Amino acid sequence: MHHPDRLALSPERRAGIHQLARELVPGRRVVLSTHMNADGDGCGSEAALARLLAQLGLTSRIVNPTPWPALFDFLLDRAVAEETARGAAALGAGETDLVIVVDISDVKRLGNLTDAVRRLAVPKLVIDHHVASDDPAGDIVLTDTAACATGELVYDLACELELDITPAIARALYAAILTDTGGFRYSNTTPRSHAIAAELLTQGVDPEEMYQRVYASAPAGRVRLLAEVLSTLGVDDGCGLAWLTMPSGTLERYGVRSEDLDGIVEHARSIAGTRLAIFFRDLGYGKVKISFRSTGDVDVNRFARQFGGGGHVKASGALVAGSLDEVRDRIVTEARSYLACR
User: Fold this and answer.
1) pLDDT, tens only, 257-286
2) 317: Cα separation from own chain's centroid
3) Is residue 293 classed exposed, middle or buried when 0-12, 13-18 and 19+ CB atoms within 10 A define those classes?
4) What confidence tens digit (pLDDT) does each residue in 154-205 have?
5) Between the CA of residue 339 and those of 100, 187, 192, 293, what are the distances in Å?
6) Could you tell me the end-to-end alpha-carbon distance of the chain, in angstroms, rounded to an integer?
7) Nearest CA-CA partner of 299 in 131, 129, 178, 153
8) Dihedral (C-alpha) 35, 40, 41, 43: value to the nearest 10 degrees?
């Protein structure tokens, strides 16, 4: 039986890596950043890149638009400088020679760092696997929507440049791929993502430990919050729509963080017959954060773009102005119409 080389790179991906690598000049001071409310792919890609760049003689600092999630603290150590608390001041031109933005297709997802990054007169690189936007965060882009996670592209960069994938780098890349594939359950899971995971296991990753750290470390408040959010479930069996709602102040009442909301929308998607699942979170200042998930042939990236959002075909988001009730009612109405056409 023929076993194809699952880890072989396409010519386009290889060319993108080498174009990006030309900017990785020893001695350069690099700022790494990712999107607001960083997830496992953003954090894992940053933590792995910081260590990989050190092998090339570059120094890195992570500066994100929102605090580093406590869930992924285990990816940090003395080898990774995390300076998010300094905010835009950490991007001063006098201490930054290069910016690398990961897991972002649109510069506006850098939140309060957007303007500072735009002003910086240094090379800006992007490593990402989302659908391209009209306003990328950099001029040199390594992107491929066929990648299951940005972490897959970082893995390829490491291999193509013949860098050492240490146990710490392997854990970071495994966290990126594990979380963005939903524990290897989502449709972006490929034979190649499993092949990369297998390679990372040979580098010292303990899958049970990773499961415990990522999926079995929730505070009790998270479970209580989940119970309240699930009580808001709305379902339209006729068009395969399900939605959940969370009012402002809920995080504070249960003493949990934003990252504890990861995966909640999956409970709506798990309902039999659901084609589109939505999670509405009232941020409390006239804005509602919306998470969209889909199954089958429903393209939620296209749907989210109607509201200034975007992401993946089956997982996207948007930030919409208005009260929770009016935004939810409008989006649910639009979703019914969208599904009726598919």
Assistant:
1) 988 998 999 999 999 999 999 999 999 999
2) 11
3) buried
4) 999 999 999 999 999 999 999 999 999 999 998 899 999 999 999 999 999 9
5) 38, 20, 32, 13
6) 40
7) 131
8) 60
User: Structure tokens of 47?
Assistant: 């933590």
Pairing between strand 315-321 and 310-311?
Answer: antiparallel
Residues with Cβ within 8 Å of 280's Cβ and at least 6 positions away in sequence, in order, are 243, 244, 245, 246, 288, 289, 290, 324, 327, 328, 331
Helix (H, G, I), strand (E, B) or coil at 335: helix
- Gap between the Cα atoms of 168 and 173, Å rounded: 9
Helix axes 150-160, 191-202, angle to 10 degrees: 60
pTM: 0.89
Which neighbouring-strand residues pair with 251?
none
Closest to 35 in 3D by CA, of 85, 108, 87: 108
Handedness of CA 45, 266, 297, 341 (dihedral sign): negative
Q: Say which DSSP state 130 is in.
A: S
Please state, in angstroms and rounded to a whole number, the distance separating the CA atoms of residues 225 and 202: 38
